[in-house]
## 1
Amino acid sequence: MRFPFGIHNPSAFQALLPEDEAALLGRARFLQAASLRGALALQLKGKKLGLLCDDGGDGGESRALFQRAAEELGAHVAMIRPALSSLGSPVEVRHTALILSRFYDAVECQGMAPEAVREIVRDAAIPVYDGIACPGHPTAALAAGLDDRTSPADNRRFVLQALLLGSIG
């Protein structure tokens, strides 16, 4: 099941239609139930995700949430401190986006300037997420749609996993 994020722009998650949100929640509920049964599959085994972090923002909670969500599904997550803001020219950002596309199946950007993320989205040939694990992202509110059999933090993780599976799985 793939979600309509645009060609390589899952950061457009804010624009999902209600039926797409329902599909994402449905997959998150499935993951929640599988986790409760101890039967969460490694559906992202062999996938490599980059986690670009320019600052610590929320004390690393968003980084840890993203990393746990991806690794529970079998993905490998590499932490990258890009300092893209110091890259002066669009050519350097474009080159960086192309390199990231060669090494990773997707990239999560946290604590980065929106303009830098947009440039990476534009030039990358992989899904680029704009803070999907951060507290202010719409995934946080969507997690409230899951039942209370698991903690709010776990519900956030299941929504992130559903989003990852829908865009790269």
## 2
Amino acid sequence: MSKATPYFLFDGNCEEAMKFYQHCFGGELSLTKVSESAMKEQFSDTQQNRVVNARLVSGGIELSASDWLLPQRPRIEGTAMCAYISEASHDELERIFKHLSDGANQETLDQLRSMPFGTYGALTDKYGMRWMFQGQ
């Protein structure tokens, strides 16, 4: 069976961002830089320290990411993509929301609150990634 996994494209700060997300969610982070990959000969010296693949797995949360590796094409901020955290208790949502709120864009912050369908909140983190929260 197929599954959908959020995939983030960063502009040179993938390692920093994924370590931040590991701090927020816990779990196991695997990370491969261009210089460590079989494709290293295909990239310039300036790209060797960029991340070609990162994956964070923590319980039901799985995030994948890399740095943007196509210098001939501009990277577009990830505003059209959002990670959705659901099926969590209010306490778990509060903990994750608090961590991701560190350095978040205050103009796009929707504090966690009780709604008719349960707990809801949303934010854009310090890396420009949008997160939505829904739980009990």
## 3
Amino acid sequence: MLPFKKLSAQENQALLKFPAYISMLAAQLDDKLDDTEKKSAIKFSHTKTFSCNPLLTEFYEEADKVFKKNIEQLDDDLPKDKELREVVIKNELMILEKMVLKLGKDYSLEMHRSMKSFKQHVSKAHHNVLVDFIFPLSIPGLNEN
């Protein structure tokens, strides 16, 4: 199924990787995608299918079908060097950004909000409730990403 009639089939397939690339970027904070981040991202992808803005429902329903495969493939295919990996991810995100812009202002704004929440969720996959209890204030690097 092609969620976006304004995009080619190839662009649709690429856009469905958007959440996976965002997850990979979030995982870069600690050098790699580990099992905790991967599980968190997969679960969040599924949750998004029914918790997102209705404007994005069709996108997330399709993205969720291929999310696990996409994130595993990206993790295998992306360069292992941290700096190079980050450059490649950011370049791909710029390409995806151009595709999203073709879908209109409202859609683009909502997609940005959603991808930001995706990145924050994966970034906090290792979040520890005990740290919040001991340090209730935000301390960069400890309980704030």
